[in-house]
Write a structure and sequence with these properties.
Layout lengths: L16 H7 L7 E6 L2 E6 L21 H16 L1
């Protein structure tokens, strides 16, 4: 499906209704643009709160502050690259 939209002077576009319907985009949803060479792909991002409770967290990791989780993940990625 190819549908055109115009860019406003503010750099904004309206996502055409057919595209919103096809992607299930509703008011308040967030979207992501991925630029690949001279194209941009648009996708609706999932609501992460909808995933709450779908992944079991080991007891030892429950209650760990988010900053600590993020720091440990970054350190692990850094070690993996070297």
């Amino acid at each position: 499906m190819d549908i055109a939209a115009k860019v406003t002077s503010q750099g904004q576009i309206t996502i055409p209704k057919k595209v919103r319907d096809a992607l299930g985009i509703k008011t308040g949803d967030q979207v992501v643009f991925r630029v690949e060479q001279h194209r941009a792909l648009l996708a609706r991002t999932p609501n992460l709160l909808d995933l709450a409770g779908t992944v079991e967290v080991p007891p030892a990791k429950r209650g760990v502050p988010w900053d600590a989780v993020r720091d440990a993940t970054r350190k692990a990625r850094t070690r993996a690259r070297h």
